[in-house]
Design brief:
SNase_OB-fold_sf, 5-stranded mixed beta barrel, OB fold (Dihydrolipoamide Acetyltransferase, E2P), 6 helices, alpha+beta, Micrococcal nuclease-like nuclease, hydrolase, signal, 3-stranded antiparallel β-sheet
Amino acid sequence: MRPAIQILVTVLLALSVSQARCDVYSWIDENGIRHFSNVSSPYDKTATQIPESVSSTIDKSNFTVIKVFDGDTVQVQGEDLEFRIRMVAIDAPETGGSKKKGQPYSQQAKKFLERLIQGKKVRLKQYGTGGYNRILAEIFSQDVNINLAMVRQGLAEVYRGKLPKTLDPASYRKAEADARRRRSGMWSQGKAYKSPKTWRKENPW
């Protein structure tokens, strides 16, 4: 069996056992930076499998936020690892990338998140893996749930897709309802507001 197929089979088996975690695969890129994913490595990289017993310590470790990509995606570093986090349960306005104009309040969401956690130590609570091999997680800074803070500020909505079974969305939905009532942040647009999910469908990459 080809190595890439072996990795895929191993991960699928792990996911069938646990929704929250599975084995982690680590590799070093051409710049000497170590990355990890609980899906697989890029096709041209040789990955080392890290047992779940080791990856589970991630929830007990502190990481530094080294880059904020947008209102719901960041890069963290620590424990000899560097990886990307997709903030679970929330969906912030799309920035549009380098070739497209983003949604209203997308830059405000990014800047607010930068003020909250850029360069700071954070804790993570993992919920498995989402698209593009990104770890799904709640981010905590000084015991503040940063995911929830984005929703309360009116700079992210509750994610409208499938949520992890182990995550209770009640607090997120209450925070969104409160932000809508106050017309905070992106909710000030009223009827002109578009969900990030709708915007992505209308503006495919």
